[in-house]
Amino acid sequence: MQRIGIIDLGSNTTRLIVMEYQKNLCFKLVDEVRHTVRLIEGMSDDNMLQPAAMERALEAMHMFQSLCQATGTTEIITVATSAVRDAVNQVSFLQRIKDETGLTMRVLSGREEAYYGYLGIVNSLPLYDGVSIDIGGGSTEITEVREREFVRGVSMQVGVVRYKDRYVTTDPISKREFAALERGVAVAFQDVNWLASTGLPMLVGVGGTVRNLAKIDQKRRGYPLERIHGYELTLTALEEITELLRKQSITERASMPGLNSDRADLIVPGAVILRQLMRQGHFERLIVGGQALREGLFYEHFLAGQSMSMFDNPRSFNVENLCRLWNYDERHSKKVREICFSLFDQLQPLHGFRAWEREILGYAALMHDIGIQVGYYDHHKHSEYLVVNSALPGFTHREVAMLALLVRGHRKGDLDIDTYAMVLEPGDETRALQLGAMLRLAEYLERTKTQVVQSLRLEFVGSSIIAHVQLNGDGTAELINANQRTKLFRKAFGRDLELVAP
Question: What's the predicted TM-score (pTM) here?
Answer without folding.
Answer: 0.92
